[in-house]
Design goal:
Order of helices and strands: EEHHHHHEEEEH
Radius of gyration: 18 Å
Number of strands: 6
């Protein structure tokens, strides 16, 4: 139907990338927004990462939550007047955790014209220090709790699974 734009594991449908609303999927009605994320996670404070980057990850989180709870429950939670405030609150927290899960691979990436930087020496007023990014195994271990916490927050509303357990993610 539409092409997709991929950024790390986050993907953004072409209409959303162009700032258009894709009414057929109900997208662009996410429970969280960039302002909420900047309050929720210190890694999102200030103007970095940019709003467009966060929007891409918000859509990925929305798609995941929709798979867990279904479109009806998600759309109700995303509405201005939800029928279940407790569900909205829990799904909002879950979606916020998933945004962090999807954003982490890019937040951990430092790219220069020469390629990806694994470590560097930084000079500042406090002296010289070395900066190194997380290894793939470390990044996987850092990301997993965000996914697990999102599943836990949404557990009462996940359809098709009586008592969902955290799922080990292998990506």
């Amino acid at each position: 139907m539409y092409g997709e734009i991929y950024v790390s594991e986050c993907k953004l449908s072409a209409p959303r990338a162009a700032g258009l609303r894709d009414i057929s999927k109900g997208l662009n009605m996410s429970i969280v927004d960039t302002a909420y994320l900047r309050e929720m996670h210190p890694a999102f404070a200030g103007d970095r990462p940019t709003g467009p980057f966060l929007e891409i990850c918000i859509e990925s989180a929305e798609e995941e939550i929709r798979e867990w709870v279904g479109d009806t429950a998600y759309d109700d939670a995303a509405s201005a007047t939800p029928t279940d405030e407790k569900r909205k609150k829990k799904l909002k927290k879950a979606e916020g955790e998933l945004v962090m899960y999807f954003a982490l691979p890019k937040l951990n990436l430092h790219i220069a014209t020469q390629g990806v930087i694994l470590s560097s020496i930084e000079k500042s007023q406090f002296g010289t220090g070395t900066i190194a990014t997380a290894s793939p195994a470390q990044l996987k271990a850092i990301r997993q709790p965000y996914y697990d916490l999102a599943r836990h927050k949404a557990a009462d509303y996940i359809i098709g699974t009586p008592n969902p357990k955290p799922v080990k993610v292998t990506t």
